User: Fold this.
Amino acid sequence: MTHAGDDRAAVNAAAVLRTVLDHGPVARSVISRLCGLSPAAVSRQTTGLIRRGLLRELREPPGPAASGGIGRPRIPLDLHTGAVGGAVAAGLHIGVPASTFGLVDLRGQVLARRTFPHDGGHSPARIGAELARFLAEFAGGRPLLGAGAALGGRVRPDDGVVVRHEALGWRDRPLARELSEVLGLPVRVDNHARAVAGAEILFGRPEARRSLVHLFIGNVVDAAFGIEGALHRGPNAAAGEVAHLPVPGSTVPCAACGRTGCLQATASDAAVCAEAVRRRIVPDPAIWLLVDAAAAGDPRADRLLRERARAVGRAAALLLDVFDPAVMVVTELSSVLHEGYLDEIREAAVALSHVCADPERIVGPHAGPAVLPEAAAAVLLGPLFSDPSASSGPSVPPDPSVVT
Ligand SMILES: [Zn+2]
Assistant:
């Protein structure tokens, strides 16, 4: 049971934390002005947030400016990203060929990351145990807020259940609970397209908070939508299932639905890799082999990736016309690594779109190649910045003896 005073304190704590996220380092008096809270309320909230390892005071170096001031020096506050005592979150992206682990600070910076190939299957117990080992190695005694996990398929964030993930064969899997049992930490779970959109809203370009569409092109294809800083999920958490969006100009048959020209059948990593093997560009269907081949100067690999980029751009044009977002984020490996493929996506999108004549509105994820671990951690950090009082996880570093 909560009281009106608790609710107000929770709202105030979130306002202070978000103000420091956007404006830090910043003095208490400025926070007070920016949030419209009394100095006493700001002081009370900052004390609590400092105690939890979320904020810290920055000591100004002694110098002419500091000694010349009048009265008590105004000590700026910032999010605690320090190596000693700064809170961190784990980010777990569960992919089909491999998972990615990340250790992420309160500004979304990925401090460490590791790829974990799924040679031995996808059991959450195994993935969780390996993630615990990673955290014991890299968290260095810093307070761990918990873990955010992101993956494809239909995911219900409220109870952390993976409703359906075709490639992993998961149905109604209570993933958050299973991972939490292994890690001994709070775990939140969401679809990876929404996770990237959430990270853009929290840590990315300011216009992403007005409105954004995110298009995720991996082994699976997904989209996510955000308006006024909030992610849209839909009543069944199913918003953004664009796998069978028809791509203008594509005649590729879709084995899943029997029609032709579906986005996933045309442009997913799996589809492009199968085509790359068929054209004898790469020996195995691995997207990084194809991207590496193009980077090494193979014109056939480059041509195939440009064909894919143009198909992605045409699908992006449809979404641009429906939503007219302030920013359109596209996560696709070749364009994240090489700007030329992003230009190809932009050209194809602008050529087809009826509302977007501005190619710069289409961007890659702000975190670049660190997009997946950052986005996964944002699944946990997003709710923390909205309500820090509700996320009072055990700020206890893992005991390395448990997992070694
Ligand atoms: Zn289809």
About this structure: The longest strand covers residues 98-105. Residues 244, 254, 256-257, 259, 262, 265 surround zinc ion (CB under 6 Å). Residues 66-72, 393-404 have pLDDT under 50 and may be disordered. The CA atoms of residues 321 and 354 lie 6 Å apart.
